[in-house]
Design goal:
Layout lengths: L1 E4 L3 E4 L6 H8 L2 H6 L8 H19 L3 E6 L5 E8 L8 E6 L8 H15 L5 E6 L4 H9 L3 E7 L6 E8 L4
Helix pairs in contact: 1-3
Length: 172
Amino acid sequence: MIILETARLVLRLFNTTDADFVVTLLNSPGWLQHIGDRGIRNTDDAIRWIHERPLAAQQRDGFSFYVVTEKSSGTALGICGLIKRDSLPVTDIGYAFLESAQGKGYAREAAAGVMRYAQEVLKMQELMAITSPVNTASNQLLQKLGFTLQEEKILVGESELTRVYYTTLSSQ
C-alpha cells in the first residue's frame, strides 16, 4: 500500500518480500554504528521484524516506518516514517538509507514528505527526532528540515547519548 509519493520517491508499507532488503539495511555499517544491532541475520529474522515492528506499529498507531523506493525503478533505497516511542512525549520521525542511496537528497525528500503527511493527513502539530551526536549527516539534515536541538540525553533503555530534536509542523 502506497502511503505517499514525492517527485522521485514512493513510500509504502512493508511486506514480507522486503526481507532481503531489511537484512541488508539493518546490517549496513551506518545502521550498526548510528542505530544499533537489531540481531536481524537472515530472512526469517527480517520477516519477524517486519511483522513485529513496522506492520504492528501501523496497525496500532496508524503510522510506522515505510519502505522508500525509487519511483522510476521501484528499488528499495531506505526507510522513513514515524514512530511513537515510550521514551519521548511526541511522535518522532526517523530514516535510514542504504549507503548506495546516501548523498543524493533522498533522505531529505522522504523526510519532508513524511512531515507533510504527518501534518496534513495525520493532523499532527509537532514532531521530535533523535540521532546519535556523531551522525553528522543526520544532525545536519534535521536542522535543514526545521528541527531544533532540544537536548542530549540517554534515553530510557539505551546506553548511548542521543540528540533530541523538536519541531512544530504548523510553521512548515
